[in-house]
Amino acid sequence: MQYHRQIAAIEVIGLEREFKGAIKAVDGIDLEVARGEVFGFLGPNGAGKTTTVRMLVTLLRPTGGHARVAGFDVADQPAEVRRRIGVALQDAALDPLMTGSELIELQATLHGIAPRSVRARGAELIERVGLSRAAGRRVGTYSGGMRRRLDLAMALIHEPEVLFLDEPTTGLDPTSRLTLWDEVRRLRDEGTTVFLTTQYLEEADQLADRLGIIAAGRIVAGGTPAALKAEVGSPHLDLVLADRADLERAREVVAAFGDHRPASDGCHLSVGLAHGAADIAPILRALDDAGFGVAELELKQPTLDDVFLAKTGEHLEGAAESEPEAAPELV
Q1: How many helices (H) and strands (E) does the chain have?
Q2: What does DSSP assign to residue 22?
Q3: Which terminus of the chain is more solvent-facing, meaning fewer CB atoms within 10 Å of its CB: N or C?
Q4: What is the DSSP string of 96-146?
Q5: HEC profile for 176-190?
Q6: Which residues neighbour 304 within 8 Å (Cβ) at sequence distance 6 or greater?
Q7: Cα dihedral sign for 104, 107, 111, 112?
Q8: Per-residue pLDDT of the chain (331 residues; tens, 9 = 90+)
Q9: Rounded to the nearest 5°, which phi and psi values hold at 13?
Q10: How many Å is the Cα radius of gyration of the chain?
Q11: Closest among 87, 77, 16, 71 to 48, alpha carbons compared
């Protein structure tokens, strides 16, 4: 019996995009996204993340390499790709004068859905994203979270094989964020492939089956969240000193116990612990012997922020942001 390898939902080989002035925003990346998985795509600003997505959704033509989405080449078969993908971009333009129902029914018509099915399909998706009570209102009266949910419904109108979500929860309150997370999980369970870009590491950790990290136009890491965190290895200790007058000397003291790490907000020192929690007491004794008092300390297990820092040399913008205060949305 002859077996055939299942075609990947997204397959990228040596993909490049060069702009005028010989600037390579994307420099020969390779990616493979399996059918039915959520793939998280992370990277600092200017890393090539948005350029990659724009090529995959056929809004930008590659200058090198190849990419296939849903089995079709993005450069040679863009119309076939567009028929099979849904796209919800962060800067989606929604006509504020149209109602939610009117917009989604227009989208259904543009995708060639039979006229007799347009209204029912639109109502089904409006209900799915929790906008039934606001369906007859003009979009200009919608909150940011409601607009993102409507945009998601529009991207799903033709039941795409692959859904591209570009930072879908940026700026949303926690309740709206969790609602969208649940919808992403449901789509995956139904067999939809989701390509997710996000600036929230918790979001990537919660939703993504696998991750790809891009920096300076190149893929610098890839794998499951658990595997990537395991690569980072040891936990680290964050310290707030009672007196930070001689911080450089304090760094020298703790350097004997592990690698120094860039300190996060509010933290004076951060050091990797080769032997885990067993290193804490010796570090505190060494600091005390050197005349440094410790006001606060926190043992932290490896996180995706540690992975991102190790692979790119910086924290992901938004990774350390506090969650916005929950605010009820008017529907």
Answers
A1: 11, 13
A2: T
A3: N
A4: TTSBHHHHHHHHHHHTT--HHHHHHHHHHHHHHTT-GGGTTSBGGG--HHH
A5: HHHHHHHHHHHHHHC
A6: 42, 201, 204, 205, 211, 225, 228, 229
A7: positive
A8: 343 446 799 999 999 999 987 789 999 999 999 999 999 999 988 899 999 999 999 999 999 999 999 999 999 999 999 999 999 987 667 899 999 999 999 999 998 899 999 999 999 999 998 899 999 999 999 988 889 889 999 999 999 999 999 988 887 888 888 888 999 999 999 999 999 999 888 999 999 999 999 999 999 999 999 899 888 777 888 889 988 778 888 888 988 888 877 776 667 888 888 777 888 999 999 999 999 999 999 888 888 988 988 888 887 765 555 344 434 444 4
A9: -130, 115
A10: 23
A11: 16
Quick one: 115 exposed, middle or buried, by C-beta within 10 A (0-12, 13-18, 19+)?
A: exposed
* Cα within 13 Å of Cα(175), Cβ side: 11
12, containing H or E segment? strand 10-19
Answering whether pTM is above 0.85, one says no
d(CA 298, CA 238): 5
- Name the token pair of 280: 């804490």
Q: What's the token pair of residue 106?
A: 């227009």
- φ/ψ bin of 65: left (φ > 0), alpha (ψ from -120 to 50), beta (otherwise): left
| Helix 144-155 × helix 100-110 angle, to 10° | 20
> Residue holding tokens 């190149």?
218
Amino acid identity at 103: L
Q: Which two tokens stand for residue 80?
A: 């076939």
